[in-house]
Amino acid sequence: MKEKARPSFVGLHGKDLDLWLRTNALAWRLAKVFDLPLVCVEPKRRPNGAGGLCYHDEGRISILLRRKARAYDGGAWSKVPRSWVNVKSTVAHELAHLIHPNHGKDFKALEAEILAETATD
């Protein structure tokens, strides 16, 4: 695991700072437990589509905490953020992609192992 990159808050809804700090801490803790090549965790800048993205060649993941109604034109934010269970699942999914960039058997096994580690979070 490389040294932590400076946190980014671009793409973060103003009321989601506590959720973001919790998400960020979880991702770094899991990366340490599983010795994953994580370099950067950031809020997903385009709040539509997938709940997260992994740039495995860069060691970077981005996590969506809240959707927008019409993200393509800067529409209104959803009134509530995604659930913590959903965010934890997305973090586990994107971290597993740091090792396995596909959705094969090895990916699914690692994703399940990482997700199991979040049970008490």
What are the defining features of this structure?
121 residues; single chain; alpha+beta; Zincin-like
Write the topology of this structure.
Elements: H1 17-33, E1 40-43, E2 52-55, E3 60-63, H2 84-97, H3 105-117
Parallel strand pairs: 1-3
Antiparallel strand pairs: 2-3
Structural class: alpha+beta
Please identify which CATH superfamily we are dealing with. Metalloproteases ("zincins"), catalytic domain
The topology string of helices and strands comes to HEEEHH
Helical content class: 25-40%
Low-confidence stretches: none
Provide the residue-averaged pLDDT.
87
Rg measurement, Å? 14 Å
Task: Write the CATH architecture name.
Answer: 2-Layer Sandwich
The share of residues in extended strands comes to 5-15%
Largest sheet entry: 3 strands, mixed
From the spread of the alpha carbons, the general shape counts as globular
Annotation field: number of helices: 3
Q: Quick summary of this structure?
A:
By secondary structure, the chain is α+β, with helices and mostly antiparallel strands. Helices cover 36% and strands 10% of the residues.
